[in-house]
């Protein structure tokens, strides 16, 4: 996607050059600080994510990117700052409660059930939508069955969309790496998230797998209107996919803007070239 415009946009949204609709604020991180004992992983960082946007968080190793993703997904709780989701301050929540709000994620190191089939793995992504617990399922078999059928339909649609019909019965452990990553994406999508967090979706992939994954990320965003925030080290991918990019270095935010703005940001260039700073 070519990006020439600036990151200054009207509050209620805009249309991208390739015709996608970007809306108002979906999430705002306000003055987030996160410490681990004496280590300050995130220092007073603010940024926002708009509805429908593909937003990247980049930075050198140890910059604090994973920590930030973990704050967004509720794994870490910042000592300072607020997380605003859909206009409301999010109270301290457990990750499963954050998932119920509509935030799903994939992991850098694939976190699937190796012995289970692709289909069953993706079904686990529907758990946040399942109302019937085990006891309910036993007592109200009819409604639990209807729910199962509905969940299956959603999952089948995702399987078609991500072109993994041919491996639906295959145990995940037997799949090549690129396909495992695609199954992880499918499982996260099964939760029908408003915000999808991707932790290094291209890590360990060959060129062809990266091209496939890039296409699927764009298609998911376009077809389902899913807002996506991703951490990624592959600069080519980041600059191609993202509407806007946040750059972190040593826990601080050193850049925030469109790919073009980031490419021309001297602090960002210095950080990647390893220029010393105070
Ligand atoms: N659970 C933790 N306990 C203690 N320190 C941590 C923890 N998680 C992260 N850190 C520290 O916080 C800082 C930021 O780490 P983080 O993993 O967020 O960076 P990153 O940008 O994701 O790095 P990478 O690209 O190498 O994955 C580092 O100094 C790291 O050692």
TrEMBL record:
<dbReference type="InterPro" id="IPR032823">
    <property type="entry name" value="BCA_ABC_TP_C"/>
</dbReference>
<feature type="domain" description="ABC transporter">
    <location>
        <begin position="27"/>
        <end position="275"/>
    </location>
</feature>
<dbReference type="InterPro" id="IPR003593">
    <property type="entry name" value="AAA+_ATPase"/>
</dbReference>
<protein>
    <submittedName>
        <fullName>Amino acid/amide ABC transporter ATP-binding protein 1, HAAT family</fullName>
    </submittedName>
</protein>
<dbReference type="InterPro" id="IPR003439">
    <property type="entry name" value="ABC_transporter-like_ATP-bd"/>
</dbReference>
<keyword id="KW-0547">Nucleotide-binding</keyword>
<dbReference type="GO" id="GO:0016887">
    <property type="term" value="F:ATP hydrolysis activity"/>
</dbReference>
<dbReference type="GO" id="GO:0005886">
    <property type="term" value="C:plasma membrane"/>
</dbReference>
<dbReference type="InterPro" id="IPR027417">
    <property type="entry name" value="P-loop_NTPase"/>
</dbReference>
<dbReference type="Pfam" id="PF12399">
    <property type="entry name" value="BCA_ABC_TP_C"/>
</dbReference>
<dbReference type="GO" id="GO:0005524">
    <property type="term" value="F:ATP binding"/>
</dbReference>
<keyword id="KW-0813">Transport</keyword>
<dbReference type="Pfam" id="PF00005">
    <property type="entry name" value="ABC_tran"/>
</dbReference>
<dbReference type="InterPro" id="IPR051120">
    <property type="entry name" value="ABC_AA/LPS_Transport"/>
</dbReference>
<keyword id="KW-0067">ATP-binding</keyword>
